[in-house]
Known about the structure:
It is a single chain. The protein is of the alpha/beta class. The protein contains 11 helices and 8 strands. The protein has helices at 18-25, 29-32, 34-37, 55-64, 76-91, 132-141, 166-181, 192-198, 218-234, 236-243, 249-264; strands spanning 46-49, 69-73, 100-104, 117-123, 143-154, 160-162, 206-215, 269-280. Strands 1, 2, 3, 4, 5, 6, 7 and 8 form an 8-stranded mixed sheet that branches. Helix 1 runs antiparallel to helix 9, helix 9 crosses helix 10 (236-243) and helix 9 (218-234) packs antiparallel against helix 11.
Amino acid sequence: MFDSAGMAAETYTHGHPASVLRAHGARTAETSAAYLLGHLRHGDRLLDVGCGPATITLGLAARVAPGEVVAVDGATPAVHAAASTVAAAEAAGEIEPEQVLVRAADAYALPFDDDSFDVVHAHQVLQHLARPVDALAEWRRVCRPGGIVAVRDADYAAMTWWPATPALDRWLALYRAAAVANGGEPDAGRRLLSWALAAGFDVERIEPSAGTWCYATPSERARWAETWAERISRTVLAEQLVAAGLADQDELDGIAAAWQRWAEDPAAWFIVPNGELILRA
């Protein structure tokens, strides 16, 4: 995710094709940061690390207004998508001009002074980092004493679906193999608490929780299947799997087709469990 010059060299497994940006752009503060919302106060200064297209950022900005929000990402396509999202929201009057600043930044070496923010938020970021403990320590550095570092990450090994579909079992195995090869930890959700403790957070000042995404309506299934059918067969993920000899293109195309068939089943159901932490600095 953080691939600009001089930044950490992990490979973002999903890449940034249109399907990924669309899927990430469907996320909101309500669907993806509900565990944090009750802790936010008007006037808080908030940092959103790994902001992607910044749709979650906008929801957080509404809750801390008129507090300043800084949205950072290390991937150029994500920074551009975030800037477009923020510009559109300003033009529509959804946020005040210049309330939200978008910039490129390294999650391990943020360009901010110590104690700069009341809230530091990171959604689905730690799973892609080779040094999650170092990242958490850096986010703690820029968080004011008494402030909040809030993190949420999925746990791929705990994902489940119906009906049983061998091609989706293969999809999961291939994705987890690629994520590990890229320096990440696909089962991050269950590890968040251990990483936070290793980063020096006080166990008595941690609020752990869990949340899920559920894809079971026709539109939800179609969106979820569309993004994964493209990712597994037509993006950097597919290229990596073929180059590593883990799969060939015919197999990946077959998995993509299986995703589409799964979505067409009226009884199909998929859940994504997420670990969540509120960390008091």
